Amino acid sequence: MAKPLLRSLVPEEIAPAVGELGGEAYRARQVAGWLHVHDALQWDEMRNVPRPLRAALAERFDLQALTPVERQESSDGTRKFLFRLRDGQTVESVIIPMESHSTFCLSTQVGCAMACRFCATARGGLVRNLEAGEILEQITHLRRDLAAAPISGHGDRQFNVVFMGMGEPLDNWDALPTVLRIMMDDDGLAMSKRRIQVSTSGPGEGLRRLVAAAPGVGLTLSLGGTTDEERRRLMPVPGRTPLAEVIELGARYARQSARRTTIAWVLIAGKTDQPEQARRLAKLAGSGPFKVNLIPLNVLDDDAQEPSGPAAVLAFQEILTRAGIDTTVRLSGGRDIAAACGQLRRRRLAST
Ligand code: SAH
Asked: CB-hemisphere CA count at 13 Å for 260?
């Protein structure tokens, strides 16, 4: 059995753990700083922590759970990483350079149980949930990469996080609340909730839990259909929750966190780019505090589905915009490095 990950502990848990091992109270702060500010991956990096305490911590906890096994950089600057976990499983993370900061795209599960027809991660089903520390350590590695190879014109360490990598974040309720707390805590990563976006396919149970927990971070609903039937066809598992309920919960969440919920809509030629779908989507999005983000399909290697062409994308967007819906088109980065969620891992699985 692997040891617990030190990075999975919320700040209030670090003090008792350090205390039990004989460390003074202020040592907990130092240790937390090494985890969440200085991105330590080795115990001997914790220079101001006494050696005996480091050794005692190392006996009880693991500090590193992820080993980088692949790094690709796209011509557009997108950086994609494949990490091996302690049990040999692999997950992906991505750095997406924006104008003034980077966006980190993180994974929350190995595989996924939602079975969405257009998604690479769904193909192998769910293997397991990631632990909180495994999710947070992705940030550690991405920040270390940015420190080693800065993006010109970017502020020092400013980054946003989107949970749009492998897995369904709301299907990993064991870890997600802990991860969000550590990200926003002053003794954790001290991130503003404005910089965090949870993206979900909207399984009912998870969505209800999120609304009840009200963490205040941004919410993106990956809709996949404008009727229950359409949605079930493309997203069999989340599609079990009635669309009306998904929309209602998305709107309630937006009102309680005072920021609009984004509806993500994947555009597949001939399947999800029909004018009547745009009109129904406009109606759904107009029913509450929503905006829409259109994502032309990233083609998977073994799939006959194709992304909508530029004209169809524009026409679809036009219908929404005319209806007064704030609509953007996501230009996917990293196409030349298979950066669509789950693609890198799949290619590696196929080649071994
Ligand atoms: N499970 C969560 C987060 C991971 S998927 C969710 O569904 O939101 C992140 C986003 O990528 C979702 O909006 C999803 O619809 C989209 N996506 C998945 N596969 C895609 C593909 N092949 N092309 C374009 N977008 C895709």
From this structure: 15
